[in-house]
Each structure stands twice: as structure tokens, then as C-alpha cells.
Amino acid sequence: MFITPAYAQAAGPAGASGFLIQILPFVAIFAIMYFLIIRPQRQRMKKHQDMVANLRRGDTIVTTGGLIGKVSKVVDDGEVQVELSEGVKVRLVRSMVQEVRSKTEPAKENA
């Protein structure tokens, strides 16, 4: 035969280093996915939640449907009343606010 017995033998078990080499690409892919997708999405969600929580009467907002209006009343933790035009008021779920265009100044306390 042309193949010597030394070449035909299988390699011995690699042990722990072989396992680490096999798992390393999965860890690297997860780290890349975390920093490129998961972390920025969490930051965006936290920023949106803070914006929605700080809505006040008089703020000009844009809804996810593209309507622009002014907050006329904060109904409760989940809803606001928005005036779209003179005399046209609608109740809107807070999470449907996409952007706050202009903020009103906070009410000044009497000193």
C-alpha cells in the first residue's frame, strides 16, 4: 500500500482546548449581535419610555400615525388627550407617541 500506518491513524482527543475552539465562533457571533442589535434597541426603548413618561400638557407631539397635535390633558399613566385642531380632541395611548416636537416649560413653583 501507498499509505503508511502512521498517516492512517486518527488524531487523539483534543480535550478542553478543542471544545473552546469550537464554541469560540458562537460566542463571537453573540457578542457582535449584542453590540450591533440588542444594545442599541434597548437604549432606543429606554429613551422612548422616558420621553413618553415625561409628557406634559402643552407639548407638541407626533403620533405613530403621523398626526401632529398638542397635549391638552394627561388622562392617566396610559393615555393622553391630544388636540389635533381647534375643538378636535382625541384620546391617545401614550406608547403611540413617536416624537415630542416642542416641550413646554415646567410649571414654576411659588416661592
UniProtKB/TrEMBL annotation:
The keyword Oxidoreductase does not apply. One of its GO terms (biological process) is protein transport. GO terms for cellular component: plasma membrane. It comes from Roseibium aggregatum. Part of the SecDF-YidC-YajC translocase complex. The SecDF-YidC-YajC translocase forms a supercomplex with SecYEG, called the holo-translocon (HTL). It is found in: Cell membrane. Belongs to the YajC family. The SecYEG-SecDF-YajC-YidC holo-translocon (HTL) protein secretase/insertase is a supercomplex required for protein secretion, insertion of proteins into membranes, and assembly of membrane protein complexes. While the SecYEG complex is essential for assembly of a number of proteins and complexes, the SecDF-YajC-YidC subcomplex facilitates these functions. InterPro entries: Preprotein_translocase_YajC. This is Sec translocon accessory complex subunit YajC. It is a single-pass membrane protein. The chain crosses the membrane at residues 19-38. Its main location: membrane. Keywords: Cell membrane, Membrane, Protein transport, Translocation, Transmembrane, Transmembrane helix, Transport.
